[in-house]
Amino acid sequence: MKLQSFFTSILLIFFSLLSTPKPVSANHSGFLQCLSLRLNDTNIIPKVIHTPNDTYFSSILSSSIQNQRFSSPNTPKPVLILTPVQPSDVQSAVKCARRFDIHLRTRSGGHDYEGLSYVTHNKPYVILDLRNLRSITFDNDNRSVWVQTGATIGELYHDIGLKNKTLAFPAGVCPTVGVGGHFSGGGYGTLLRKRGLASDHVTDARVVDARGRFLERKDMGEEFFWAIRGGGGASFCVVVSWKIRLVDVPSKVTIFNVTRFSEQSSLKIIDRWQYVSDKVDDDLFVRVMLQRSDKNMVRASFPGLYLGPVKILLELVNREFPELGLVKEDCKEMSWIESVVWFAELGDDETLIDVLKERTQASLSFKAKSDFVQEPMPVMAISKIWRRLEEEEAELAQVIFTPFGGKMNEISENFTPFPHRKGNIYEIQYLNYWRGEEKEKYMRWVERVYDEMSEFVAKSPRGAYINLRDLDLGMYGGVKKSKYEEGKIWGVKYFKNNFERLVRVKTSVDPFDFFCDEQSIPTFRSLDVI
């Protein structure tokens, strides 16, 4: 009876797929049968396999779309969504997908800036959504954590904060970002000057490779392990979980924010910031944020974190950066985990720590670009940005300057694939958000600001950050070149000299390019003309 029920479930899913409104190839039918047989449990199948006819298909698809630019009715939709409940489900998905030539997109938190973790315009595809693989396991003796790829950095921060007030992890400020994409692209936040990138503190990983094998660091080898810690893991495998090393923080840190509305006073502070922000004590992190205020005026904000008490912070800033005008009233002492909540703009009370676990969906569309700056910009260049922010289409725009220096100067640019370290004084992110379907004028705004800054930023190549993905840099199929030649166009901007090493790893571990997207790492064998 149990066997009959099992095959009945397979048939129901099979016919459900065949009855979808869009045509489905025979390959997808074979893939579905293969996967259903491999899962081999009637209770698991409906938890893992979701067809367009399923009640929850649309809600699962939309729940992790963090850029509403890719949620319109015209956006291509997947043939299936898979939500594995155990690592072996991922192996089954990869083995069946490879057998039946099915294209997979792997999604963790859904924050890919160009939506590549859940959208492709080139072919039918299946989303491998890792939302159910989100366990976080502590090894207190070794101050390390195994965190599954489907967890968010907010969930990770939350659990660290509950365990220990003097341990932390150097990742980003947005709590809904999935650890999978964040770690595999590098990952930076308020601790980068003191501790470097998130990927610098990954000590092991568990992955499913293109052959469907489950591997750890000792099995995959050091080159494979190197590639997934900053080279974009989705080009090489499905990372199921990461082992990370925690770092020390004081029991009390200090957060602060200084805001200015006058262009003249703001530019004076920013000009000085460019000369000191990467050179001051590594315990100090001060960001610059330019955006419109509630009164529709451009404002400059200088939020910061100091790994120590207010008294020492004020002495340091008054000595090294008096132009900031920091006073005690701008500051507040708190625990590190409270500072995480504050930087996420969720409050500044430790009782709010549970909000870090919430998986909210973004309501706006956006476009972003990035740059690295190696010499201070003239005030005139910052003034250009200020003027652009006064324009009508920049109502929700932001330009963010993130300081480097400190630990970023000490780690070699080939320690991980992320190469933008020593020599860069800060990174810029240009962002514009909007509501509704209209997008052209908002995207053009980002392009104009980016173009105007070209003479003031890093060159040869003009760098970009893979975690702030930008398809304007190029994508496969755009020109009559080999895939390798096309990939190199944007690959050297993301990875500089590390690009060739990443290609060697890709050629070794995924020679048939099973894991691919519009900007994935190519193989040396990708010599066919597109």
UniProtKB/TrEMBL annotation:
Q: Which family does it belong to?
A: Belongs to the oxygen-dependent FAD-linked oxidoreductase family.
Q: Where located?
A: Secreted, Cell wall
Signal peptide (UniProt feature, chain positions)? 1-26
Report the cofactors. FAD
Q: Which UniProt keywords apply?
A: Cell wall, Disulfide bond, FAD, Flavoprotein, Glycoprotein, Nucleotide-binding, Oxidoreductase, Secreted, Signal
Q: Does the keyword Oxidoreductase apply?
A: yes
Q: Per the database record, which ranges form the FAD-binding PCMH-type domain?
A: 74-249
Query: Could you tell me one molecular function GO term of this UniProt entry?
Result: FAD binding
Name this polypeptide is given? FAD-binding PCMH-type domain-containing protein
Pfam families for this protein: BBE, FAD_binding_4
Please indicate if the UniProt record lists Oxidoreductase as a keyword.
yes
Lineage summary: Eukaryota, Viridiplantae, Streptophyta, Embryophyta, Tracheophyta
